[in-house]
Design goal:
The protein has 271 residues and is an alpha/beta fold. The protein is 25% helix and 20% strand. The structure holds arginine. Arginine binds next to loops.
Length: 271
């Protein structure tokens, strides 16, 4: 029987959506003519920050850069395991300059940063779960980057193939509940990858397509509290039934760009 869900204080890096917008379309959620309500986006993001802080987590800020409308999605800039930072190399040209800002932030904060040679979108596709690094590919991060991650971070890296363009990053289809278990939407993965997940996590929470489309899998868990999209009602019920505390935070303005809570949150895992 799994033990009672227990929170661990976390250190998060976030980026204020001062220049957030949907100006290009690099995933099926985005349409350059969808207007963003900027005041609402800012308020939703601020409530995410306030929620983390009220739960006792540290939130640090990356300074936003004009003309980088996706920079609010701080998860994509790097992945940090045991104080080792693997930077990013974005698939889309529009996002490439974001890597520079992340690199500079980590350097200034005293970390060594390794720049990947292949396309690598940070925690968007590289999800640390206890002793493994789950690594998505198919739309953004390349398999070569999974190898780079394993070699640099020294963590067994498990390649998972994404097959549905609505779930183009691993963190739109799966999140870590704690160091031992995950929640995911099986339909986002190839048959072989589904089997891998089933072997590694026989007790996983399985979400349906409706909850996945509501960005339910783009959640952030501290081991007990799960920041979750309020539209993912089935998943919320399953989390509660397992003893987790769902904390709904509405980030609907960011869904227009294909992101939600996890995309806005980079976890800085110390050594
Ligand atoms: N518009 C952004 C993109 O397509 C959204 C990124 C969402 N981030 C994430 N971690 N899934 O790149």
């Amino acid at each position: 029987m799994p033990s009672t869900p227990t929170a661990r204080p976390r250190r998060y890096l976030m980026c204020e959506p001062r220049f957030y917008d949907v100006r290009y379309a690099i995933n099926p959620w985005m349409s350059a003519d969808t207007p963003v309500d900027h005041a609402r986006a800012l308020a939703q993001w601020q409530s995410l920050v306030d929620t983390y802080r009220s739960l006792g987590h540290a939130v640090e800020m990356l300074e936003p850069v004009p003309d980088l409308p996706d920079m609010v999605f701080a998860a994509n800039g790097a992945v940090v395991v045991d104080g080792r930072v693997l930077g990013s190399r974005f698939h889309a040209a529009q996002r490439r300059p974001e890597s520079v800002a992340h690199h500079a932030w980590f350097k200034a904060a005293g970390f060594d940063v390794r720049e990947p040679e292949s396309v690598c979108e940070g925690e968007g596709d590289l999800v640390p779960v206890g002793r493994f690094l789950l690594a998505g590919t198919g739309f953004r991060t390349s398999e070569a980057a999974h190898q780079e991650a394993q070699e640099y971070l020294g963590v067994p890296t498990v390649t998972l193939r994404l097959v549905d363009p609505y779930f183009y990053h691993l963190d739109t289809a799966l999140f870590a509940l704690d160091d031992e278990n995950v929640a995911y939407y099986p339909g986002a993965f190839s048959p072989g990858s589904r089997e891998v997940l089933q072997r590694l996590y026989p007790d996983a929470i399985l979400a349906d397509r409706e909850d996945a489309l509501a960005f339910g899998l783009n959640s952030v868990s501290d081991g007990r509290h799960v920041i979750v999209s309020p539209g993912a009602t089935g998943l919320i019920a399953q989390l509660a039934a397992r003893g987790f505390e769902p904390v709904p935070v509405d980030l609907s303005e960011f869904h227009k760009s294909g992101g939600s809570a996890k995309c806005c949150t980079q976890e800085v895992r110390s050594a």
